[in-house]
Amino acid sequence: MQQKAPLVSRDMLLPFILLTVCFAAWGTAANMTDPLVKVFSKIFTMSSLQSALVQFSYYGAYFCLAIPAAFINKRFSYKTGVLTGLGCAIVGAFMFYPASQMMTYGFFLAALFILAGGLSILETSANPYVMRMGSEVTATRRLNFAQSFNPVGTNLGVFLAATLILPQLNQATADERSNMSADQLVAVMSAELEAVMVPYVGFACVLVVIWIAIAMMKTPAVCQAQETSNKVDFRATMGRLFKNRHYRFGVVAQFFNVAAQTCVWTFTIQYVMEAKGGDEISGGTVLQYSMLVFLVSRFVMTWIMGFIRPAALLTVMSTVATLLCLCMIAMPNDTGVWALIGISACLSLMFPTIYAIALHGLKDDAKFGAAGLVMAILGGALIPLIQAALIDNYSTALSYIVPAGCFLIVASYAVFDLRSKQRA
């Protein structure tokens, strides 16, 4: 059994609460974005591969901005990084208004890129910040607990998409749209894109409030003491990280974990429509159920980690996720849909657990180490394109072989960590 220690001390409680709100915020943004693949596919009459550029822009921004975030954290502080990230995300979210007026796909992709770039800086800063707010013994559990509020945001994001965006889609097919007059088509697209814009502009207003609250927050003394070295020796730091086999494998595992998560949720609506029939709204309902399972499971997994080693639990859940993906492929019906929902329970612990395991023992190198793990979110930009190509050429059910392979790699890292700890 793991050593008992408080997750957060009293003087860090308020900063910790404010940071957990940030975890919920980027969960909201990410899962409002997942349905946009299907939404833009319909509005702009595109293939699954073309519409998957939504995720390419979103997660590509995470890759591009993680290293700049590490420099901000190293040169200044984690708090500065959090405020910078929130500021960029606010700008990107507000850009959805002019994008809806311009009615061009590229403008929306640009807005998503800026929004996600800000969230990349925010996440690169907030995750290690939370790990510093207490004993290293409880760092993995503390991060899992903070990340438990991320699915609160993901559920809110799916709810906003399901209630404010998906019901506003015109049910006209691609052929029917092609037969509309130019004025009719513009009117339909304008109404649909306005529905996309509203929740993002509202999200920007909420982020402004969070930014003000954190700006007024006093940085805990312990965290200040731990951030005494502002000298940036990028080459030496990256050299040490690259030589660290445990960390390198952790980055690879995070790449495929985020890829799997993005693949599973991005194409949930398509899978449900193919397996059970129905429309985007019924698919959105299943996605909402998945997010609720994810939410409850995150808290359950955090509790279980008080008794079972995180890497052991990660091994079990990633293996189960692989089997559930194979079930979806073999039985694209009600059984496959239930398996799809069950995968969210397995996903609930993966990101924070891999993150904390990979950063363990890196000390000050963790600032750039955190950037590498956030850059691994690029998996969410690249791998869904492969799955989308399989959907276009074969079927949605068969495409879930992609996340199945990703989960196997995550399981391999968990086993590697267990064995390395046994040898130590």
Automatic annotation (TrEMBL):
Membrane spanning segments where? 53-73, 80-97, 103-122, 143-166, 197-217, 247-267, 287-304, 311-331, 337-358, 370-391, 397-416
Protein name, as recorded: L-fucose:H+ symporter permease
Tell me what gene encodes this: fucP
This protein's UniProt keywords: Cell membrane, Membrane, Transmembrane, Transmembrane helix
Q: Known Gene3D superfamilies for this protein?
A: MFS general substrate transporter like domains (1.20.1250.20)
Q: How does it sit in the membrane?
A: Multi-pass membrane protein
Q: List the subcellular locations.
A: Cell inner membrane
Q: Quote the cellular component terms of the Gene Ontology held in the record.
A: plasma membrane
- UniProt xrefs under Pfam families: MFS_1
